[in-house]
Every structure is written in C-alpha cells, then in structure tokens.
TrEMBL record:
CDD domains: NMNAT_Eukarya. It catalyses: beta-nicotinamide D-ribonucleotide + ATP + H(+) = diphosphate + NAD(+); nicotinate beta-D-ribonucleotide + ATP + H(+) = deamido-NAD(+) + diphosphate. InterPro entries: Cyt_trans-like (IPR004821), Euk_NMN_adenylyltrnsfrase (IPR051182), NadD/NMNAT (IPR005248), NMNAT_euk (IPR045094), Rossmann-like_a/b/a_fold (IPR014729). Residues 49-256 form the Cytidyltransferase-like domain. Keywords: ATP-binding, NAD, Nucleotide-binding, Nucleotidyltransferase, Pyridine nucleotide biosynthesis, Transferase. This is Nicotinamide-nucleotide adenylyltransferase. Belongs to the eukaryotic NMN adenylyltransferase family. GO terms for molecular function: ATP binding; nicotinamide-nucleotide adenylyltransferase activity; nicotinate-nucleotide adenylyltransferase activity.
C-alpha cells in the first residue's frame, strides 16, 4: 500500500510569488535609483562661495549653504558639488575683526561636520584686502584649470595650499563648474550704497558668476533688483531664496554678548565657542573664570598650523579613551572641601566656592579640546 503525501501547494506557491514580487519591486527600485542618479549627473554643476568677515562664523553662515543646496536640488535644475567659505583679509579693518588666523581656525572648526563646505584661506594669505570680484575670479579660474588638467595641481587624494577647498570629484567629469556668490539680502542691498561697490565689479559678478541670495520672509529683494539697472539687466543670473526659518543671530550680536560677559551657548558651534574662550577673542569676559584660576595647560598655542587647509576626516575624531586631568579648584578663601560638597556663605569671612572645572566635567568637554588642539598645534 502506497501512502499518499499531501504537499502544501498553496503555501509554497504564494510564498514563491511573494518573493518573486519582492525581487521584481527591488529590481525596479534599483533601476529607478540608478536612473535618478544618472539624471543628476547630467545636470549642470555649480558651487557656492561666501565671502565676508566670519568673526565669528555663526550657524546661519553655514545654514545659507544648506538652504541654497536644498533649493537647487528640489528644483532639479543644477547639481551642487561644493561650498567655499573665504574669510576676508586682515587689512579690511572692520571693527571687531579677529585675526585671519583665528577666523580661519574657527571656520575650520565650524565646518568639521560638513562633507561639502570647505575653508579657503587664499584670500587671507594675500598681501592686501581683495575685492570680492577678484576672489570669485581666482577661485573660478582655479576650478577651471583643475578640471581641464584632469586634476593636476592637487588631486582629490591630496591637498595643496590652494587646493584644500576644492570640491571632491571635480575631474571625474570635464563638465564645467559654475561658481556663484552666496550671500544674504544685505549684500544685495549694499550694491545701492554710493561708492561702496564699483559698478564694473557688480556687473562682472552678476553677469559672469551669478548671485544666490538668501532672503528673509516678508522682505522684498525684487525691489532692489528693480531699482538697479545692472541687476535688472542680469536678473536671470540672480536666484532669490526665501529662508522660512529665520535666524537673527549675527556675528555682531555674538561679539556684543561676549563683551558683556553673557552666555552665547547654543548660539554658536561648541568647538567655536571653546576656541573663543581659550583665545580670549572679542573681549571675552566671564563672571566665574579669571586669569588667576585658568590652568596654564588649557591655554591655546596661538601658532596656526601650516596644514590648516587639510580637511579633517574620521581619523581626526578623538579616541574614546579620554585622558583625565587632575581636578582644578580655586577658592577665594578657606580650605578645599570634599568633592561634591557645597560651601555656603553664612557670614562675613566665610568661604565662597569657585570651581573652574570638575574632573567629570572635563571628561565631557575633553573631546572638544582634542579637536580644537588639532587646529591649534
């Protein structure tokens, strides 16, 4: 007698169809993704450059790059390949202008988390202040030469003094990269200030490079374009982008707060703020930390590294095994109490405790100090 075996045909069949459908959808999705990437690669390539003091660089300076990149990617008209920050020369002489070395160091620290915004220190290494048009033209020429030479003069795998700011992968294609000036609406308005800009420079910037203007909600930048014959003539080269998430924290506001001894925590990148404190920039004041209680080993070496233009990568991330330094405490009078104890003023002559930094607090900020020290060795 032969036993009859019953196979769960329906179960097997449905599972097979389910898997086949999954792989078909996956294959279709992969093909669609590849098609989208191929389409993006055919778009005209652009890069942004922002010129200014950056004394200090604020989050809004960097947000402008992200806002502009989002705009062009959502429009699907261009492919953004890089962003460049070019601090102005020391001879610009603006009030509150920190030294070029300090400003470059702060920009370097502020852009550590970005994989496409880079510092160019070419302008600060010139013999004198450079006009914005000249800065734009230099960087555009360098990009053109880099692409046309197939990467000669500083490839993607190495940085030279001038090439550290170059976007990666430029010579993967011979397609040109159009460098545009990224700015706020205040720069657009400054074109109308008599004697501030040479008309030839304005025309060259707008006609040959183009403007990407980040404006505030409720502003009317179109009126400034209408009032200018030059801007109206080349208005097709001006991209106006509204920032719907306003941020009014400016460099001048940061300097004012620091000079008053007020907190700017969460208004600046933590590493930039640590750098300002260590270097005592912008008349930095503190109600709690003075020269008498500042440990000498925390003072920065003011010499600027010769390799500032090199990009920081994952190898620059500090080791998780942080080194602990001895606890540093200072009291205006009285003995040092046990750790964690509180000293209260109960009468004249009693001790008032001033703690600069506990050992556990140092552990929290040690990573920041190590990152900063890489810029300041």
């Amino acid at each position: 007698m032969i036993a009859k075996i019953s196979w769960p045909k329906n179960t097997i069949t449905s599972e097979c169809f389910r898997r086949i459908g999954y792989f078909k959808r996956r294959s279709k999705s992969n093909k669609m993704s590849a098609f989208i990437e191929e389409t993006k690669s055919l778009l005209p390539r652009i890069a942004f450059i922002a010129c200014g003091c950056f004394s200090p660089p604020t989050p809004m300076h960097l947000r402008m790059f992200e806002i502009a990149k989002d705009h062009f990617e959502m429009q699907g008209t261009h492919r953004v390949v890089g962003g460049i920050i070019s601090p102005t020369h020391d001879s610009y002489g603006k009030k509150g202008l920190a030294s070029a070395l300090d400003r470059c160091a702060m920009v370097k620290l502020a852009t550590q988390s970005s994989n496409w915004i880079r510092l160019s220190d070419w302008e600060v290494h010139q013999n004198q202040w450079m006009r914005t048009q000249a800065v734009l033209q230099h960087h555009q020429n360098y990009i053109n030469n880099h692409i046309n030479s197939g990467g000669a003069g500083g490839g993607d795998g190495e940085d030279t003094h001038l090439a550290g700011w170059l976007p990666r992968g430029l010579h993967d294609s011979r397609d040109p990269v159009h460098l545009k000036l990224l700015c706020g609406a205040d720069l657009l308005e400054s074109f109308a200030v008599p004697g501030l800009w040479a008309e030839a420079d304005i025309e060259d910037i707008v006609a040959n490079h183009g403007l990407v203007v980040i404006t505030r909600a409720g502003s009317n930048p179109g009126k400034f374009i209408f009032d200018s014959d030059i801007l109206t003539k080349y208005q097709s080269n001006i991209t106006l982008i509204t920032n719907w998430v306003p941020n009014e924290v400016s460099s001048s506001l940061i300097r004012r707060l620091l000079g008053r001894g007020q907190s700017v925590k969460y208004l600046l990148d933590d590493l930039v703020l640590e750098y300002i404190k260590r270097q005592r920039l912008f008349n930095f004041k503190s109600k709690y930390i003075t020269d008498a209680v500042r440990p000498n080993h925390l003072l920065f070496n003011h010499a600027y590294t010769d390799q500032l233009e090199q990009d920081m990568d994952e190898s620059d991330t500090p080791s998780p095994q942080l080194q602990h330094t001895p606890t540093s405490r200072v009291f205006c009078c009285g003995d040092v109490p046990l750790r964690g104890s509180k000293v209260l003023r109960s009468g004249p002559g009693q001790a008032v405790q001033v703690i600069t930094m506990q050992a556990d607090e140092k552990e929290e900020s040690q990573a920041k100090k190590q990152k900063i020290s890489q810029v300041q060795l």
